[in-house]
Amino acid sequence: QVQLVESGGGLVQAGDSLRLSCVASGRTFSAYAMGWFRQAPGKERDVVAAISWSGGSTYYTDSVKGRFTISRDNAKNSVYLQMNSLKPEDTAVYYCAARRQGGSAYYTTPDDYYVWGQGTQVTVSS
């Protein structure tokens, strides 16, 4: 199974942009549906966005619609999260997650996934 490494987090001001990257090891990346989750201190880990193996289907949680874009490049074993117009409430540790593509186009709960990256901190100051 794949292993995941995230990068791209940092400290930014409200209104700025960041692009998170997640690189997967292994030769079967295209067989995996991917997701981005985030977890703020004292809160549960929640889905931010999800994408099917082909990139043809995507999902966004309501609070990021119109601001964040999930994409993938199977040739580079990578999935990305472009985050624009960042808000202080976007502050969290962001995790990349993977699971074998099944019957659903994408997956939106943490229990759906069984491969996780180590997380990258995103802090948005007001």
Query: Which descriptor suits the 3D outline?
Result: globular
Number of helices: 0
Q: In percent, how much strand structure appears in the residues?
A: over 45%
Largest sheet report = 7 strands, mixed
Q: What is the end-to-end distance? A: 40 Å
Q: Element order, helices and strands?
A: EEEEEEEEEEE
Share in helix: under 10%
Uncertain runs: none
How confident is the prediction overall: mean pLDDT? 96
Q: In angstroms, what is the radius of gyration?
A: 13 Å
Descriptive report:
With 126 residues, the chain is mainly beta. The protein is built from no helices and eleven strands. It has strands at 4-7, 10-13, 18-24, 32-39, 46-51, 58-60, 68-73, 78-83, 92-100, 115-116, 120-125. Strands 2, 4, 5, 6, 9, 10 and 11 form a seven-stranded mixed beta sheet that branches. It starts with a strand and ends with a strand. The mean pLDDT is 96.
Q: Which features does this protein show?
A:
126 residues; mainly beta; 7-stranded mixed β-sheet; 4-stranded antiparallel β-sheet; 11 strands; 0% helix
Give a quick precis of the structure.
The chain is mainly beta and 126 residues long. 0% of the residues lie in helices and 48% in strands.
How are the elements arranged and paired?
Layout lengths: L3 E4 L2 E4 L4 E7 L7 E8 L6 E6 L6 E3 L7 E6 L4 E6 L8 E9 L14 E2 L3 E6 L1
